[in-house]
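Lab notebook page, bench 4
Experiment: in silico fold of construct C2
Operator: M.H.
Input chain length: 95 residues
Purpose: comparison with the prior construct
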Amino acid sequence: MPAMNQARYQRIKAIFDEICDLSHADRETYLDSCCGDDEELRTDIEALLAQDRTPGIDFDEVGSDVGELLSEAAARGSESSDAPVPASIGPYRIL
């Protein structure tokens, strides 16, 4: 694969930014119209989309645990700065 020049990078970035806002059903049509016969361009964008779907942190799930901890800390006020640190927050261990 040839080195990517700045213009190609900008094109890939622009298409990727647009396609992320589309429904899954509309993505294929958009890729068809943007990439045409440029299979390498389509492959590059599809690879980015695959990475974008990689599971990450579910902030909604973790956020509720963090919210509870903050509420508890606020309720305690300044009782003690030696309050115990939780062993975990959601699926994450505190080290």
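Observations: The first strand starts at residue 88 and ends at 89. Residues 42 and 94 are 41 Å apart (CA to CA).
Next step: discuss at group meeting.
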